[in-house]
Design brief:
Number of strands: 14
GO molecular function, one term: metalloendopeptidase activity
Pfam families: Peptidase_M16 (PF00675), Peptidase_M16_C (PF05193)
Low-confidence stretches: 1-22
Radius of gyration: 29 Å
Strand content: 15-25%
Organism: Eolophus roseicapilla (Galah cockatoo)
CATH topology of the largest domain: Cytochrome Bc1 Complex, Chain A, domain 1
Structural class: alpha+beta
Strand order of the largest sheet: 3-4-8-5-7-6
Largest sheet: 6 strands, mixed
Number of helices: 16
Number of domains: 2
Order of helices and strands: HEEEEEHHEEHHHHEHEEHEHEEHHHHHEH
Subunit structure: Heterodimer of PMPCA (alpha) and PMPCB (beta) subunits, forming the mitochondrial processing protease (MPP) in which PMPCA is involved in substrate recognition and binding and PMPCB is the catalytic subunit.
Shape: globular
CATH superfamily of the largest domain: Metalloenzyme, LuxS/M16 peptidase-like
InterPro entries: Metalloenz_LuxS/M16 (IPR011249), MPP/UQCRC_Complex (IPR050361), Pept_M16_N (IPR011765), Pept_M16_Zn_BS (IPR001431), Peptidase_M16_C (IPR007863)
């Protein structure tokens, strides 16, 4: 060892700190038994990094003069995610041609007043290491960009132009029509029917209203949607009071300054007339059934083809994400869990959830049993998706209806705690991702003008009791079911029988007696 190191080991240390005595290195020199609770002589005082005040990491919201909300969340790192969220989606298309939101999603980040083409937009973003994306859901359209924080001014300028001043040229609209037709074909040919079933269950649950309207553009409407139709829709729904500019990883004052510069007093491409025809309908839950008879035998051919399956989804109305019961429903959804029969992994993958333990582990012929919870600002839908061989459809439906009835039964303490812990861990792990934080900030501020922070949500999850689960399930079971069925439906029970099973004590379907088989 060097001389300096040897000298350090021989420092005479005061006895009061319990530093007397010593051991020896393999080289023979002694070192003291040092107590780390006392400062070391000759060593500078340590300066520890301290967490900054929580207020620095709280979501800040500013409302501009035109009604636009600017929300930001600070996060360490040189990159930021910034975007515009609009309170507009397929649920607002009742008075318009169905499929406008689908078109707008595909047309996003095309040519604008400032940028001549999509390539020009992408080249501008590349200078700041940026990527862009647009997603349309039933109630929100989201334009987002992730880029270096130094390019914030350029990014906000680009987002303002994309959202408010798109050119919507004839060539771009023709290309969008082709893209939409291709997506619709692909949707019907996919081995995974989950997106199609989600559409069907919404159509059954909210027949011809709000969130029950089709999210995808019907084939017959692709040629009818043009610039005039899009402008008449945008004039009503793309107004500043229905928008949020959200950012993660940037200073709030900087984002507000950019918003004032690029989003205040901007003349949109469709003119600045007042919105006259805004649909403020509240979702009306109807219940019902949507069936699509389809030959699923050739969905996935090849060396290991997927067997022919019939897919069933049964749902019941839950609650909106603004209600207090939303948290117990989220815990219930986690407790039901489920997945595919070939899903690998341990408890973290949901192997101890009810749909694994009671359904997939006991009935080897079932290929899938998964719970989903869709929640909106005025309603919600808790559903179970199951798939099996067409010959076992009746048995599969009865197993699912029994699981719905069992939800209202006893909930074990261990089972409940596990579901709550899984929900909290999923929430916290998802919120490590900057784009996820951005979406969370944007959606919450768009709906409530504020944001519940993760620690607040975790506290609410911890408070959920088994009595809360029983209460929300009992209320839910009084509603009419929504049913979506896809595939060979020869043995599918009638809607009335499914409704009777969900109203019974044990969830069993009424017996059917046949003279001939």
């Amino acid at each position: 060892r060097g001389g300096a190191a040897r000298a350090l080991t021989r420092v005479s240390l005061p006895r009061r700190c319990g530093l007397a005595g010593g051991r020896s290195y393999s080289g023979g020199s002694a070192y003291p038994s040092v107590s780390l609770t006392c400062p070391l002589p000759g060593v500078p005082k340590a300066v520890f990094a301290a967490a900054e005040g929580r207020e620095r990491f709280e979501t800040r919201v500013t409302v501009l003069e035109n009604g636009l909300r600017v929300a930001s969340q600070n996060k360490f790192g040189q990159f930021c995610t910034v975007g515009v969220l609009v309170n507009s989606g397929s649920r607002h298309e009742a008075k318009y041609l169905s499929g406008i939101s689908h078109f707008l999603e595909k047309l996003a980040f095309s040519s604008t007043a400032q940028f001549g083409s999509k390539d020009e937009i992408l080249l501008t973003l590349e200078k700041h290491g940026g990527i862009c994306d647009c997603q349309a859901s039933r109630d929100t359209i989201m334009y987002a960009v992730s880029a270096e924080a130094r390019g914030l001014d350029t990014v906000v300028n680009l987002l303002a132009d994309v959202a408010l001043r798109p050119r919507l040229s004839d060539e771009e609209i023709d290309m969008t029509r082709a893209a939409v037709r291709f997506e619709l074909e692909d949707l019907n040919m996919r081995p995974d029917p989950e997106p199609l079933l989600t559409e069907m269950i919404h159509a059954a649950a909210y027949r011809d209203n709000t969130v029950g309207l089709n999210r995808f553009c019907p084939v017959e409407n692709t040629d009818k949607i043009g610039r005039e139709v899009l402008h008449s829709y945008l004039r009503n729904y793309y107004t500043p009071d229905r928008m949020v500019l959200a950012g993660v990883g940037i200073e709030h004052e900087q984002l507000v300054e950019c918003a004032r510069k690029h989003l205040l007093g901007v003349e949109p491409a469709w003119g600045s007339g007042e919105a006259r025809d805004v649909d403020r309908s509240v979702a009306q839950y109807t219940g019902g059934i949507v069936k699509v008879e389809k030959d699923m035998s050739d969905v996935s051919l090849g060396p290991t083809p997927i067997p022919e399956l019939t897919h069933i989804m049964i749902g019941l109305e839950s609650c909106s994400f603004l209600e207090e019961d939303f948290i117990p429903f989220a815990v219930l959804n986690m407790m039901m869990g489920g997945g595919g029969s070939f899903s690998a992994g341990g408890p973290g993958k949901g192997m101890f959830t009810r749909l694994y333990l009671n359904v997939l582990n006991r009935h080897h012929w079932m290929y899938n049993a998964t719970s989903y919870h869709h929640s909106y600002e005025d309603t919600g839908l808790l559903c179970i998706h199951a798939s099996a061989d067409p010959k076992q459809v009746r048995e599969m439906v009865e197993i699912i209806t029994r699981e719905f009835i069992l939800m209202a039964g006893a909930v074990g303490e261990v089972e409940l705690e596990r579901a709550k812990t899984q929900l909290k861990s999923m929430l916290m792990m998802n919120l490590e991702s900057r784009p996820v934080i951005f979406e969370d900030v944007g959606r919450q501020v768009l709906a409530t003008n504020t944001r519940k922070l993760p620690h607040e949500l975790c506290a609410l999850i911890s408070q959920v009791k088994s009595a809360d689960i029983k209460r929300v399930v009992t209320k839910m079971l009084h509603k009419k079911p929504a049913v979506a069925a896809l595939g060979d439906l020869t043995d599918l029970p009638t809607y009335e029988h499914i409704q009777a099973a969900l109203s019974s004590r044990d969830g069993r379907l009424p017996r059917v007696y046949r003279l001939f088989r």
